Amino acid sequence: MNQSVHQEPELSIFGDPIARMERALSDLRNGKGVLVVDDEDRENEGDLIFSAENLTNEQMAMLIRDCSGIVCLCLTDEMATALDLPPMVANNTSSMGTGFTVSIEAKVGVTTGVSAADRVTTVKTAIADGAKPDDLARPGHVFPLRARAGGVLERRGHTEGTVDLMRLAGFKPAGVLCEVTNPDGTMARLPELIAYAQQHDIVVISIEDIVAYRGVLQLAAE
């Protein structure tokens, strides 16, 4: 199923793919979040994404309250390696091959580690300049994800989309995400995601938008 055919009419209320991407990058630079949907024949979910650098306690609370609560920190392979974060399991058999590492907690500045403020402290500790493996306890309440080096051009996942967005916005290549859910606990699909985005003045983009935007940039650089 080609998401550009099936999702584009609904996403067009936020502009064409390039306009959506430009708004998303502008919003990220201004400290806001973005909502990213993946292909309908993949997870068919929408993730609320924020920059790890600019993450606030209020935004983390939003991720915990309005989403699944499994807040993930998307990192490059290099960042995960520098923090000595091994895979969560030796043999990843998840359907999407999501690159979960061991979960983490900041060693300093947290209590139980589960509050919004504590999770923000953990995120900021992990992405700090010069962060070391010993800065983090394992396990914890933040779930790092290791992105593929090629980004969405290699794997069309939210992990890679998040890291690509942060790079394109000029931030450290690290962001947090969580899947948006409905009030009854079911996963939000595109109509619900669009309604949620409009309620909170958030732009909705697709993984395909990021792929297309990267393609435009590559052509411009040639």
Automatic annotation (TrEMBL):
GO molecular function: 3,4-dihydroxy-2-butanone-4-phosphate synthase activity; magnesium ion binding; manganese ion binding
Free-text remark on how the cofactor is bound: Binds 2 divalent metal cations per subunit. Magnesium or manganese.
Residues that coordinate or bind Mg(2+) 1: E43
Binding site for Mg(2+) 2: E43, H158
SUPFAM superfamilies: YrdC/RibB (SSF55821)
Pathway(s) per entry: Cofactor biosynthesis; riboflavin biosynthesis; 2-hydroxy-3-oxobutyl phosphate from D-ribulose 5-phosphate: step 1/1
Keywords: Lyase, Magnesium, Manganese, Metal-binding, Riboflavin biosynthesis
UniProt-listed Enzyme Commission number(s): 4.1.99.12
Taxonomic superkingdom: Bacteria
Pfam families noted in UniProt: DHBP_synthase (PF00926)
Cofactor(s) for this UniProt protein: Mg(2+); Mn(2+)
Listed GO biological process terms: riboflavin biosynthetic process
One CC-aspect GO term: cytosol
Signal peptide start-end: none
Binding of D-ribulose 5-phosphate, residues: R42, E43, D47, R155, R156, G157, H158, T159
Essential for catalytic activity, annotated site positions: H141, E179
Catalysed reactions, as listed in the record: D-ribulose 5-phosphate = (2S)-2-hydroxy-3-oxobutyl phosphate + formate + H(+)
Family according to the record: Belongs to the DHBP synthase family.
Biological function: Catalyzes the conversion of D-ribulose 5-phosphate to formate and 3,4-dihydroxy-2-butanone 4-phosphate.
Record text on subunit structure and interactions: Homodimer.
Name recorded for this polypeptide: 3,4-dihydroxy-2-butanone 4-phosphate synthase
Organism: Thalassospira xiamenensis M-5 = DSM 17429
